[in-house]
TrEMBL record:
Keyword Repeat: no
Protein's name according to its UniProt entry: MutS_IV domain-containing protein
Pfam family, one: MutS_IV
Coiled coil (residue ranges): 41-79
Gene Ontology biological process terms in this record: mismatch repair; mitotic recombination
Length: 229
């Protein structure tokens, strides 16, 4: 039984190996994790590398501005966040008075029940240059993005096969876990090895329900229908 899924998986892996290697080479996963935005890796292009160096310097300045504000108002709980719109500082609502009294601070988001988001004058200037650099980065990475999308298109059949295989595997594994941990009894067919192909039979499952449905509160498990062919 363990060997059954290996054949399609090996074929899928063989079809996608070169694509996976290209993705690992071109996509900057570290930046993606930090800024929640996927970008083409800077080290594959001289111009992208130059823009990235400028952005890293701006990030350093933003963190220095954060530390400067912490020292000025004697409040260490301030954090800084970065997105495609630049940097913002965040502080808990209970510390709002610290920001109101601080010079050169502008509150940009003050929603009841959430943290306070604000900017300093220096951070606004940093953001203007940062957003410009980010837009330049997107412009210069677009040919690489186009190349990746073209490769994805060529791999559509393999990707679709992978999704279908994983979804089927997910259903069978989830069902197995649910049945094995259930307090009720289930009929479990015996899958036997044989050497005569004429003795081979197929169990057709009809109207399958994902096991997750049966784990919902107040919903009893309804056995799936199986018809021998």
């Amino acid at each position: 039984m363990l060997s059954l899924p290996q054949a399609p998986l090996k074929e899928i892996k063989k079809s996608l190996d070169d694509f996976v290697n290209v993705i690992h080479e071109l996509i900057d996963t570290k930046t993606s994790t930090a800024f929640k935005d996927y970008r083409v890796a800077a080290d594959i292009d001289k111009h992208l590398s130059e823009i990235n160096e400028t952005m890293e310097e701006l990030e350093k300045k933003a963190k220095e501005e954060l530390q400067s504000l912490k020292d000025d108002i004697k409040e260490s709980s301030i954090n800084i966040k970065c997105s495609r719109h630049g940097f913002v500082m965040v502080i808990k609502r209970s510390k709002l008075n610290c920001i109101k009294k601080a010079p050169n601070c502008t509150i940009i988001k003050n929603v009841k029940g959430s943290d306070i988001t604000f900017l300093t004058t220096s951070l606004k200037i940093i953001n203007e240059e940062y957003v410009k650099c980010l837009n330049d980065y997107w412009t210069h990475e677009s040919p690489y993005v186009k190349g990746i999308l073209e490769m994805v298109y060529k791999k559509t059949a393999a990707i679709k096969a992978m999704f279908e295989f994983v979804s089927q595997l997910d259903v069978f594994l989830s069902l197995a876990v649910f049945v094995s941990s259930s307090r009720n009894k289930f009929v479990r067919p015996q899958i036997l090895d044989h050497t005569n192909i004429e003795e081979e039979r197929v169990l057709q499952m009809t109207q399958l329900r994902h096991p997750v449905v049966e784990t919902s509160p107040n919903v009893e498990f309804i056995p799936n229908d199986i018809k021998p062919l």
